[in-house]
Design goal:
By secondary structure, the protein is of the alpha+beta class. It is 36% helix and 24% strand. The chain has one domain: PAS domain (Beta-Lactamase). The protein is built from four helices and two strands. Strands 1-2 form a two-stranded antiparallel ribbon. The protein is globular, with a radius of gyration of 13 Å.
């Protein structure tokens, strides 16, 4: 996961707190669809998903973002 100054300002977590953590866990992501249902099914079927997500900043404020998720296959 990448974490830049813009992320620090938007979410209130510094780089050291964010790197190595799942962004969905750190920001308590709320998906418009149940992550175990249509969201994951769409990712598996088409390899991508886009929509609006709700995150929680460090101070508890809501941050709504337009998001694009894509499955990336790593080949060594």
């Amino acid at each position: 996961m990448e974490w830049n100054k813009g992320c620090e300002q938007l979410y209130g977590y510094d780089r050291a707190e964010a790197i190595g953590k799942s962004s969905h866990d750190l920001l308590k992501t709320e998906f418009p669809l149940s992550p175990s249902n249509e969201y994951l099914d769409t990712l598996k079927r088409s390899g991508q998903w886009s929509g609006v997500l709700r995150h929680l900043a460090r101070d508890g404020s809501e941050v709504w973002v337009e998001s694009r998720q894509q499955v990336i296959e790593l080949r060594w």
